[in-house]
Design brief:
Layout lengths: L3 H6 L6 H15 L3 H22 L10 H12 L4 H10 L8 E2 L2 H18 L8 H14 L4 E2 L2 H12 L12 H5 L1 H4 L5 H14 L4 H14 L2 H14 L14 H7 L11 H9 L10 H9 L8 H10 L9 H7 L2 H16 L3 H6 L1 H10 L5 H11 L6 H13 L1 H11 L8
Antiparallel strand pairs: 1-2
Length: about 425
Amino acid sequence: MNISFENWLNTQVLSSQQTQAFKEAFLCYRIKAYRASLLFSWIGFMMILKDRVLKAKMPDSYKNRESKWNDMLNKLHDDEKWEKATIESVMSKAETNKVFNISELLRNDVDYWKNRRNDCAHFKDTEIDFFHVNSFWSFLQSNLKKITVLGGEKDLIKKIKNHFDPVLTNPNSDILPLIEEVFYAVVNKHVADFWRDLFKELSNDCVDEKEIYNIIDLAFTHLQPIYYESLIELLKRAGKTDSEALFHDYLSDVGFLCIYPQYIGDFSYDEIEIREIWKRRLYDYSLNYYGLYYMLLEKKMIADSEIEESYDMIIEESKGEITKSDFLIRLFENNEFMKRLEDVMINWLNDGAYNQTNVHSGIIIRYLEFQEKLNTNVIKAICFRQGGDAPSRKLKYYMGKLFREEPAFFKTFTDGCKKSWLFSK
């Protein structure tokens, strides 16, 4: 029997005890022991809430009353008292004893299910059938994430900050469990503020931008849309020059997408924003931009009338040493792009200034590496440039290096141009 709540629960982070309680609930449900199924489901629910309190920092509501907080924690550790202490922490409304940040309506719902738990445990006359169990599971699926401990967001920010402190945390520790806590620690309406405050704190601590972008990637892959949709908006705002860029300048949408270009479709850019990306913004991020540019082409996000202009722009900005990458190879597999690259390279080599060939020698070499059959006109243009009065020193260096590393290419090239002086001994 397929149980949708069971499938959902498998995507959540639970302790072994919590998992076992729900396994018992599913087993009882399948044999139609619905009272037992509801009771075990309630126990699993209480275990989750108990662990949230035990992992949390003491809320401000208990300020100057630490002994009372510790007394509650002791009860939660007691096998005889933990369930009663947990439900009392949920039901407490007084500001001085408040533990969970939940609405009155949700607190009433928990109270309703506590009474159904008692119906099961004491075998009262109240009928308990499969629809009661399914209804409780629907309640858990909808509301588990809403039941958060007061101050849990600030505490989670502190734990994530500590993760990047090598004095407090092993550098090889996995941050994913902390990111998954966002689901339980952050109320929906506070999600954007949480990310903003977290990244501001991490930026102030000089945490590397790639580490922060990794957190965002984990949010995309392990959290629900509400959590990463707010991230998209924050990153887009941070990429602009207005005063609302609420964390440091080195974090931005394009900076993230240069590392994780697969998410470009989630950012819902309009045509003007897309043009601004390939026309200007891409080139602020060293040479990591080929992946993002390739995805813009692959997803047909660049207007047809602007594609050739975008080719010219990306080629012109391909300066210095170019790192070989999968996305660069995929770009080279685009026949239209390659034809335009060949035309531009021939112009650099034949008619362009010496500096044009020098600064673009990296992309010329990557082009040559990619070709199984060399373009005759490109070979002639290289021979023209390197055999003339102003040969490119950088191109000579890179070609000599390529010849030494790839003897087969050396033979292919020399067979085409018969210019042995290109070989750097």
